[in-house]
Amino acid sequence: MDTYLELPVAPVGFLDRERIVARRGFNRWLVPPAALAIHLCIGMVYGLSVFWLPLSRAIGIAKPLACSADVSLLAELTTKSCDWRVSSLVWIFTIAIVALGMSAALWGGWLERAGPRKAGVVAALCWSGGLLVAAGGVYVPQLWLLWLGGGVLGGIGLGLGYISPVSTLIKWFPDRRGMATGMAIMGFGGGAMIGAPLANMLITHFRSETEVGVWQTLAVLAAGYLLFMLGGAFGYRVPPEGWAPAGWTPPPASGRAMITHGQVHLKDAPRTPQFWLVWAVLCLNVSAGIGVISMASPMLQEIFGGRLIGHPDIAFTALEPGQRAAVAAIAAGFTGLLSLFNIGGRFFWAALSDRIGRKTTYFVFFLLGIVLYALAPWAAHYGSKALFVGFFCAILSMYGGGFATVPAYLADLFGTAFVGAIHGRLLTAWSVAGLIGPLLVTYIREAEIAAGVSRDAVYDVTMYVLAGLLVLGLIANAAIRPVAARWFMPAAALDALQAGRSRATVAATSPETASPIGPTAILAWLAVGVPIAWGVWITLAKALVLFE
Question: Going from the N-terminus, what domains does the chain have, and what CATH number goes with each?
Answer without folding.
Answer: 16-244+515-548 (1.20.1250.20), 254-489 (1.20.1250.20)
